[in-house]
Every structure is written in structure tokens, then in C-alpha cells.
TrEMBL record:
Name of the protein this chain belongs to: S41 family peptidase
Biased composition (Basic and acidic residues): 467-494
Keyword Hydrolase: yes
Pfam families: CtpB_N-like, PDZ_2, Peptidase_S41
Organism for this UniProt entry: Herbaspirillum chlorophenolicum
Listed transmembrane segments: none
PDZ domain boundaries: 89-157
Protease listed as a keyword: yes
Coiled-coil stretches: none
Family: Belongs to the peptidase S41A family.
């Protein structure tokens, strides 16, 4: 089973301008070799190829035409499938190691522009003041409109210490913002931690990378060295776009009973139908070493809260879903992004230096829930601020992306970004202008404070907003009321 793990990867939301995640096939499998091909359509494609070669205004390189045809074919499937040229494939592999050269922003597309989903903490983009929701309209002198997301990301990548000028449209600003940023090799510290106060600790996973499980084990060991009688821990997965599957399994396994089911996948081919367990062979980078074996037994029982929001996607949803299904932790915050699909990265022969990132399966929580285009519904809804959730409700979700996969269990369960009338949106933006950027884990972190209150048995200020929730038959269900003093039963669709 351990070798099967190497065939699957979960790619975080959108594309990261640098770090993203992959596990690769060694080469493309020769599947369906005898399947009939659509000869008429292939002849038509050949005719168009010949027409371009003979009649286009200027000569076009054969390789360029064919590469663009492959890229368009794959990109037409869903928001997360893509053709990776030599450079993109190399960058993707580097990203899983937690280092890359770039600006450090997770991005998507909106209205033809590059939209910043989240700056990576401590990156050049983060230090330059780029914010979630910013629209990048120009890269140096090149307008973004008309570029694909891959083309825009390539322009933002480059050599260390080179500069790029971004033109940014921000809703609360009347004029474009122009920022010149120096590209750097970014070593993403995927795990952060600290003892917040005696007896209570905060553990943040910003992305799931190959070193994440080892780094988390070291952080937890350091926490217990400082606080041997730990009373509660907050696992912070807010704005975590996802990453490699072994990282999600390892983080879950640290807190779940040994050999528990963490996640399962189901797709068209036999290798996509798998179940992954809280076992060393499913998460350890070194098969002879289990980084979790050094953790104290108390870690399996310490009271937990997991914080999520609309920026929590993919691998972070796997962790939240598993801990929720086993009732191991109280999930708190706002509804997650809803990326419940698996991407396999398949190297293409003959050189094997290009690849296709292809959606090959959906994943399911231990109780069999599909969260595709729905997300994880918190046990306790808590806004980002005491007076509301800021601009988070307006963020794009999986269900807002063009050509997204539907939730095959309940298509009516898809949750889209909130829409407001123009005046309400203007009021919300005006209020956000007065806020300083939120520093997760700080004394001003309202959701973290509520998580601590819950761990201590104190009242929690819950959100007035309620997610659209449905029962297993797909019928509208009434959300359970919660006074903040105790979490409702977890592991059920409410």
C-alpha cells in the first residue's frame, strides 16, 4: 500500500506562485491502448493543424501548436487540471520541498485578472503589503487580461533577486497600487507553534509539504517539553490551501487512534479507489522512521479545536473532516473552500520533464462525506472579527470556479461566495479599511480567543451567519443552535 501512495497528490486551491504540491507517476501509463479513437475528430484536428501551417499570416512552430493544443485540452476539464511544461513541472516539484523562487502568493483568476487568494506568510509579497482579494492587472508592462493563469504565474516567477512591478486594483482604493517586488528563494515554514498561555498551545499549518509531518512532530515535542501538562491545543488551518496527501495523513494521524481511516478516494481507474490510514507507511518520508513515534501518548487525548475558514482547502479539509468525523476535535470558524478532488501528476514520455496534472478522483472523509464544492461545516460558527467575518464571505469558493466538479453525493449542497448589493458591499469595504491586517496567532486574533474560551469551557461568541446545510437526503435541515459552551455532535451532516 505504501507504494500506491506515491501515485496520488492533492493540489491546493488555485496555483501558488512558487510552492504547490505533487506526487508523481514515474511515467504515463499505457491505458486503454486498444480503445477506439474518434477518428473523424482527429482528422478534423489534423486539418486545422494543416490549415494553420499553410495559411496563417506567419510561420508557426509545430511544437508550439501541439503544446498549446494539449494545454487547452487539459485546461478545459476543470479548474485544477493543467499541462505542465518543463519549467512549471520543475517548479511544482520544488514547491513540495517547501522552497521556490518567486513572490509568494496563492492566486486564481477573476474577470480575466489574477486574483490574490492569499499571500504566503513572510514572503516578499506579504512584506510588500499585498492582500487577499487584490486583483493584479499588469505585470511590468504586460496587461494581465488575455493571459491564462499559467502564463501569468510564469511571468511572476524568475531568477532570485530580479524585480517585477505589479499593478494592483484594490476595492477599497480609488487608484491603482503599483508595487515593485524582488523575487527571492522562499523557504516556506509550513508549521508554526507557540504556547499561548500556561497549559494551552497554538499549532499552525500554513501548507502541507513533504517536510510538514517531521516539522509538526518537532513543534509538538517542543510544546510538550515546555508544557508537559498541556490542557488544550488549537490546530490552525485557516487560509491553508492544501498540499501533499501524506502531510494531511500525518497531521491527522498525530491526533487520531492508530490505524484509523483518514481519507478515501474514488475515481474511474482502479488505482484511484483507495483508502488511507493513520499508519507510518502512508505519511512517513523515511519508511524506517516514524516521526510521530516520539510524541507523548497524551497528544491523542488532549482537547482540541481546529480553526478553518473559506481559505482552508484540499488537504486542510481532509484533516478537519477526519478529526470532525471521529469527534476528536471541535471544528470552529467558517465554512471551508470545498476542494474535494484529487490531482495526479503524470510525467509524459519520452523525456519525462513535462507532465499533466489531472483530476483523477474525489476524496471522502472517514464517514464517507464528499466535501467537493461544499466544504467542511464548522461545529461552531465563529467570525474572524467580533463584528463580522470581514471580506471572507466574498471570497471565491470551489463552487464559484468555472467547470468545477459537482458534489456527487448532493449536488444541491454546493456553497457559493456571498453576494451583496452594491451599497452593502461598499459599507463592508469601508469597514475593512479601518482594520489592520490580521496576524494569526496574535493577541488580536478573535477566532483564536474564542477557541481558547471553548477549551476552557467559557462562553464563545458565535456567528449570526449560518451555512447552507443539508441532511443526508439532501433536504434543508435546521442548523443546531449552539450557545458556545459546548460543540454540537460532530461527524454528522447537519
Amino acid at each position: 500500500m505504501g507504494s500506491k501512495l506515491k501515485n496520488i497528490s492533492l493540489i491546493g486551491l488555485g496555483m501558488v506562485a512558487g510552492a504547490t504540491a505533487m506526487i508523481q507517476f514515474d511515467a504515463i501509463a499505457q491505458k486503454n491502448a486498444t480503445a477506439s479513437l474518434p477518428l473523424e475528430e482527429l482528422r478534423q484536428m489534423a486539418d486545422v493543424f494543416g490549415l494553420i501551417k499553410s495559411d496563417y499570416v506567419e510561420p508557426v512552430d509545430d511544437k508550439k501548436l501541439l503544446t498549446e493544443a494539449i494545454s487547452g485540452m487539459v485546461a478545459s476539464l476543470d479548474p485544477h487540471s493543467a499541462y505542465l511544461d518543463k519549467k512549471a513541472y520543475k517548479e511544482l516539484r520544488e514547491g513540495t520541498m517547501g522552497k521556490f523562487v518567486g513572490l509568494g502568493i496563492e492566486v486564481g483568476m477573476e474577470d480575466g485578472y489574477v486574483k490574490v487568494i492569499s499571500p504566503i506568510e513572510d514572503s516578499p509579497a506579504f512584506r510588500a503589503g499585498i492582500k487577499s482579494g487584490d486583483l493584479i492587472t499588469r505585470l511590468d508592462s504586460t496587461p494581465v487580461k488575455g493571459l491564462t493563469l499559467d502564463e501569468a504565474v510564469k511571468k511572476m516567477r524568475g531568477e532570485p533577486n530580479t524585480k517585477i512591478t505589479l499593478t494592483i486594483a484594490r476595492k477599497e482604493e480609488d487608484k491603482p497600487i503599483i508595487l515593485t517586488i524582488t523575487r527571492q528563494e522562499i523557504r516556506v515554514q509550513s508549521v508554526k507553534s507557540k504556547v499561548i498561555e500556561p497549559g494551552y498551545a497554538w499549532l499552525r499549518v500554513t501548507q502541507f509539504q513533504e517536510p510538514t509531518v517531521d516539522d509538526m512532530a518537532k513543534k509538538l515535542a517542543a510544546i510538550y517539553a515546555q508544557e508537559p501538562n498541556l490542557k488544550g491545543i488549537v490546530l490552525d488551518l485557516r487560509n491553508d490551501p492544501g498540499g501533499v496527501l501524506p502531510g494531511a495523513i500525518g497531521v491527522s494521524a498525530a491526533f487520531l487512534p492508530k490505524d484509523s481511516v483518514v481519507v478515501s478516494t474514488n475515481g474511474q481507474i482502479p488505482s484511484s479507489k483507495q483508502t488511507f490510514y493513520a499508519k507510518r507507511e502512508f505519511y512517513a518520508s523515511n519508511p524506517l522512521n516514524d516521526p510521530l513515534s516520539r510524541l507523548p501518548d497524551a497528544i491523542k487525548k488532549v482537547p482540541m479545536v481546529v480553526l478553518i475558514n473559506s481559505g482552508s482547502a484540499s488537504a486542510s479539509e481532509i484533516v478537519a473532516g477526519a478529526l470532525q468525523d471521529y469527534k476528536r476535535a471541535t471544528i470552529m470558524g467558517t465554512q471551508s473552500f470545498g476542494k474535494g478532488s484529487v490531482q495526479s501528476v503524470i510525467a509524459l514520455p519520452p523525456e519525462k520533464n513535462t507532465a499533466v496534472k489531472l483530476t483523477t478522483a474525489r476524496y471522502f472523509t472517514p464517514n464517507g462525506r464528499s466535501i467537493q464544492a461544499r466544504g467542511i461545516v464548522p461545529d461552531i460558527m465563529v467570525d474572524e472579527y467580533p463584528d463580522g467575518d470581514g471580506l471572507n464571505g466574498l471570497r471565491l469558493r470551489e463552487a464559484d470556479l468555472s467547470k468545477h466538479l459537482t458534489n456527487e453525493t448532493d449536488k444541491s449542497a454546493e456553497v457559493k461566495a456571498q453576494t451583496l448589493d452594491e451599497q452593502a458591499e461598499e459599507r463592508l469595504i469601508a469597514a475593512e479599511k479601518k482594520r489592520k491586517p490580521l496576524d494569526f496567532g496574535s493577541k488580536d486574533d478573535f477566532q483564536l480567543a474564542q477557541a481558547l474560551n471553548h477549551l476552557k469551557g467559557l462562553p464563545v461568541k458565535v456567528s449570526n451567519a449560518k451555512p447552507e446545510v443539508r441532511n443526508e437526503e439532501g433536504k434543508q435541515a435546521s442548523p443546531a443552535k449552539d450557545d458556545g459552551k459546548a460543540a454540537p455532535e460532530k461527524g454528522e451532516t447537519k
